[in-house]
Amino acid sequence: MEFKGHVDFRACGQAAFRRAAEGQLVVECRRRPEIGYFDPLSITFESCSEWKKTDCGYMLDGMKVLILGMDGYLGWPLALKLAKLGCRVYGIDNMLRRRLVAERGAQSVTEIRTMQERVAAAKEHLGVDIEFREMDLLDREALFAYIREIRPESIVQFAEIPSAPYSMADVDKAVNTIQNNVVGTLGLLFGVRDHAPEASIIKLGTMGEYGSPLTGRPLFEGLFPGDAVLQYQGQEWSLGGELTPRDPVSFYHVSKVQGTFSVYEACKYWWLRSYDVMQGVIYGNWSDELQAHPDLNTRFDIDEWWGTVVNRFVAQAAIGMPLTIYGSGNQTRGYITLRDAMQCITRLIAAPPDPGQYDVVNQVTDVFSVMQIAQMVATIGKEFGLDVEVQRIENPRVESEEHPYEVIHEKLQDRFGFASESGFADEVRHLFRVMLQPENRDRILAQRAALFPRTRWSGEHGEMKVLERWKPAA
Amino acid sequence: MDLFLLGIDGLPRWMWQRFADSGVMPHSQQLLRSGTLVPMKSSLPEVSSAAWASIITGLNPGGHNVFGFTDLMDGSYSLGFTSSRTFRAKPFWAQPDAGPSLIINVPQTYPAQPLNGMLVSGFVALDLKRAVYPAEQLSSLENLNYAVDADMTVLQQGKPQFVQELRRVMNARCEALHQHWDRQSWQQIMFVFTGTDRLNHYLWEDFEDPTSPLHQTFLDYYHEVDRHIGRILERLDDRTLLAAVSDHGFARQRRSINVNCLLAEAGYLRLKSSTRPSWSDMLPETRAFAMDPGRIYLHRQGRYPGGSVQADEAESLMQELERYLLGLQVEGCPVVSQVLRGAEIYSGPFAHRAPDLVALPATDVALSGRMNLQELIEPTLINGRHTHEESTFFVRGTQHGVIPADMRVEDVLQVLQPQVSTLQKAA
After folding, report:
1. How far apart are CA A129 and CA A126, in angstroms?
2. Is residue A471 within 8 Å of A387, Cβ to Cβ?
3. Averaged pLDDT for residues A331-351
4. DSSP-derived 3-state class of residue B215
5. How are the residues of chain B apportioned to helix, strand and coil, as percentages rounded to the nearest 5?
6. Which end of chain A is more exposed for a tag (fewer CB within 10 A), N or C?
7. Residue A189's CATH number
């Protein structure tokens, strides 16, 4: 999809709107104040020197993007992708993820470099400059000073603890999750209000914020569509534009829902602008930039707390460990590859929302049940000579195992031009090739114990019972 | 103080003389006796932004880059609004040897640029905060309820309310003048009344019709302007060179005609369909288009992204357009009185940005260059229009430069400050 026509100056992030006499709206360009005042609807992408055509649509040339949580699974590939597209990329991280994974007795399967080494490798292998500072999102004084210093045009909030089981393990971990995610995001919003109010905020949420309603109600993209109607006692009310219900499924998800409301309110009170990204379960470790050199690897976690299901299944298959399905395996979720997710986020950065606009996208390409995933991973494993076993175990979580699941995911395609570049099978094949490299296989074996769940939502202790074990037919 | 330059936007020379003689403006009567009043020619086109820019720089639009209130950005169809940022020449108060200057309400000076002294921008100004230099003077203006422009929406309540609004704005502005005048000694002051232009636009019919209930309201407003002039005169001694200027004349307007409709009718202008048509909707087949008020541009290849007029076609196209425009009639009346060639009337470093042709309106007509082609004759409350002829130039005493026989807005500085003007030409 090609974007054409008028630059939406409200979205451009460069524009200050002013109302001139007789209702005429004019804008001025923050980047080029010397050119004066313009009719916003007379400026096209083609004619504006500040916009540049990229693979992800028109993008502000040299856009300043601040990535919070740059050291993470998503933060680092995004930094590389944006830098390669010509953005000026800045990032912070408190390196918490590295510590928490180590505390769990786990490690990234692919070896990762320090941030300093990564930044140097990005310069060497991709020819890009990335600025990184070790900083805690909760150190608001430092954060605000940094925002003031760089005046980012877009801020990506990835600096959250991303684990449901971690948040359910004990009180300290639950509080840590809430503290880091909820308080971190709240503080950030004040910083944006005071020091970069025109920046767009890309907030990472999760599809898990919605839960999986047993009514079968479609999971709309955050807000009810304009023609949604509630019928009750013979009367009808429009629900158009209202936030859809949230039904988080862990304290981690609760923290994400709180983030959603914080951002929503900040857009309302202070005319901030934000896209809240309800991301499906992410998997894979492939991107054009990551492939340039092993020193550019992003982290790849597979353990109970920090890994996601597809990544863990491939790792389990690679070491001959049965794929562990929780409960019936009929739990259905939305999924997306790392590569596609990076494209989506980049497109959201490229086309920011209007001032005051809070919008939500469901960042999902496929919907699978856990059972289907196990089946597909086992089938692809056979291509690599693996005889994959699957086991169902007691479900450590409190969740519906049988439920309808209809995800609406149209905005990214229809409004932002997203087109998926990677599919499940190819991504899993690539993962097998990576996991089966001897040094990586050794790193999986070394954390074998961490691949089996121990964290029950109920707070009870003790091994999960194995309910059933089998080898799927091809 | 060396110079007090008073501006009265849209005041025709003949009207000032008449109001002075008839007693509507008694202070002016005294003033006009003490110097020379001559008719002056406005800028081309006869719009305030271009004319004031010429008055304060001594240059024509080819020299200062202000051809109207709007312009297309080079090499694009993006519609820009002229401002102090696109105004490319230095006004007299920004010359290197200029002493402390107090500049209030001069159009075309927004946003306020730094100077030796104080400046409050005139229209079009969007935000008082950025209309004031130095910024620390903002609060004194806010305390006076100073407004950069009258609230035009008051017109919907009725003309009497509108005139009341013009008074309110004028009084606050005059208060600001005297407050800041007292603050320190100034080498030069320039102060512009702009409510007069607004009044003329909307109440011209009432001025021309002595039976209109608002006829007296019109005269009363000028009487009040005169009272403010009197207060200024009281404070000036003979050592200060005093001059008064207006940027254009005024006359009755019976219809506002959209030149782009006429160009489209004759096939010179072709637009693709659009809910809010703009210059970016012009198809490559477009040969010529207009911008307010009567600026006509050939859609030249190399000047515009979709331009199709070749250099060697330009001359014959311009001749064709001149014939077409001069021969036009709407409702049995001519539309255009004169068509001038941009290449002949503009000079200076920005002359290449000039319109190819400038059309001057026929009697009773105002020209516009909107891209919304729905209505050839546009509905408007405006019933007075600018004229190129008969703007005002007055200078007190005899200690001034030569007043040219054919006085134009860009000659003002030459007459008042021959030394400044000489400096400028050397630069």
Report:
1. 9
2. yes
3. 96
4. helix
5. 40, 25, 40
6. C
7. 3.40.50.720
